Every structure is written in structure tokens, then in C-alpha cells.
């Protein structure tokens, strides 16, 4: 639970979208078993005033999943949905925003330190806990949370990532 929530403050809520959620929204074949539930949950969160952020790693990982779709026509259709979502993001028309930041030395150091997970990148690799993409989402969420007055979480469907979905 965040320090702000413990103090009883009602702050805006921001959810960073994990790849496991975006592939459902984009209807990526074989990664879309919970699509209806995810779309309903997104609608519920929007109505509750939750804002969404699309992290860099989610874009890269989702693109990799799209490009690995085996059947050519399905891959093309999925790539069109992905590209349209990115264009809408760039135009400010998507239900999420970018966290516009750069990969600077401080961010890379935070990634190596494992963000707020309490484990370094090496420790995550040794225990096969979180991969670099997931760690970068945690580190990016932490960076964003340090700049805003909001409860900043990660919306994920992955049990391993869910452990670190709420900001410390």
C-alpha cells in the first residue's frame, strides 16, 4: 500500500499498462483469452477516473508479440491494430498517455537496482523472477511516481509482476 493511501489521502490513480493487458486490448492471437474481461475492467477503471500510462517496454514487448504471430494475414491485421493504437497514442486520442522521459543514466541505474523490487537485475535473473522488460516498467513507474502526486500502479495479469504492481 502506498504511503499516501496509508495516510488516508485520496489521490488520483494512474495505472501503467503491462504487456499482458495491452495484448488483450489489441486482440493479439493466442494472448487474448481474457479480452472481454480486460475491456470491461478498463471501462470500469476509466469511469472511476483512473488514468493510464503506456510504458516504453510495453510498446516494445507488445510489438514483438505482434510480429511473432504465425499466420501472415492475422499478423498483418494485428500489426494494423497495433500501429493504429500507437498513432492514437501519439495524437493524444488513446485512453492512455506516454510517460515522456529519456533513458538516462539515472534510469538505467534504477533498472540495474531493480527499481523498488528490492532485488537487483542479476537477482531477478538468478531467480527467474522478472525479466528486463518488466523491471523497466517497475523502474519507469517508480520514476513517474516520484514526479506526481498520485497513486501509481501497474495493471498486469501476470502473477509475478503483480507482486510489484503497487508503488512502495
Number of helices: 9
Radius of gyration: 16 Å
Question: CATH superfamily name?
Answer: 5'-nuclease
Q: Main β-sheet: number of strands, strand sense, barrel status?
A: 4 strands, parallel
Q: Looking at the chains present, what oligomeric state does this protein adopt? A: single chain
CATH fold descriptor:
Rossmann fold
How would you describe this structure to a colleague?
- This protein is α/β, with parallel strands linked by helices.
- The chain has one domain (13-157): 5'-nuclease (Rossmann fold), CATH 3.40.50.
- It is 52% helix and 10% strand.
- The chain contains nine helices and four strands, in the order αβααβααβαααβα.
- Helix 2 (19-25) packs across helix 4 (56-67), helix 4 (56-67) packs antiparallel against helix 5 (72-90) and helix 4 packs antiparallel against helix 8 (132-145).
- The longest helix is centred in the middle third of the chain and has 19 residues, at 72-90.
- The mean pLDDT is 89.
Question: Any key phrases for this structure?
Answer:
single chain, 168 residues, alpha/beta, Rossmann fold, 4-stranded parallel sheet, 9 helices, 4 strands, 52% helix
